Amino acid sequence: MKSIGTLILIMVLTATLGSSFACAPRAMRGGDGTTNPGMDAPAMSTTLDRSDIDYLVSQNIEALYTSRFWLSEIIGDGTPPIFAIWPIENSTSQHLEDQMLTLLSSIETSLVNSGEVQVVAKSRQAALAREIGIQQGAIYDPRRAAQLGAQLGAAYFVTGKITGVDERLQKTRRIQYSLFLQVLELETGLVKFQHEATRSKALKR
Fold first, then answer.
1. What is the pTM of this model?
2. Does 72 lie in the same domain as 128?
3. What pLDDT was estimated at residue 132?
């Protein structure tokens, strides 16, 4: 009888453990080259994700590369001019610190890879900004920008802001994000390029 009781206990424990393992969370890897290439496609919330950032940046950068300013003043103008990137202002009601860093990195990468301009490293720009008392994430100020630009040797600053229009109707929430991008000439203060791209996210409950 003891052996039968022991066998039943082992079976119960095995079934319990097996059930626990079956219900345990499983980590998955997604993206190109994995068994879940479409993992990043679905939206998981109304917050900006990497797909949204890639879209907003690409729309603005494509407009920049086909603009009259870029074609007439940047391409084939001898020595590639130096660009610096001022922090993009977050004008939404959300905390988007990580997303803003990703946004800046995407813009920087696109400009560097264009091969048409030189881009000041963010680390050098941040260090000089601290030296002259500019706080990280500060809104673009022409006077401060000119001071920083002179030390960086930059001819142009890329700046802008991201906004979000939040609407609710019954059980649906929709946010329309806009990335507004500008290129400013430091010597004159003139706006040489500006463009706006929009992306919408919705959540139904």
1. 0.77
2. yes
3. 61
